[in-house]
Design goal:
The chain has no helices and three strands. The chain is mainly beta. The protein has a single domain (about 5-55), classed as Rubrerythrin, domain 2 (Single Sheet).
């Protein structure tokens, strides 16, 4: 299962977590291999950082 982490604040989300404001991504992050697959307006629900601050963490 993929785990993604915001480098701005450390917020992490796994592939099965619901992302606040992006409930359509619940369960889908597991299949996202690149940040370009995320919506252009994706923001960290904790600090508001854009998807450029999101990185795939070690599983």
């Amino acid at each position: 299962m993929a785990i993604w982490r915001c480098v701005g604040c450390g917020y992490s989300v796994s592939g099965m977590d619901e992302v606040p404001g992006y409930s359509d991504l619940a369960g889908a992050l597991e299949n996202i291999d690149s940040k370009k697959d995320l919506p252009e307006d994706w923001e960290c629900p904790e600090c508001g950082a854009g998807k450029d601050k999101l990185e795939k963490a070690e599983e």
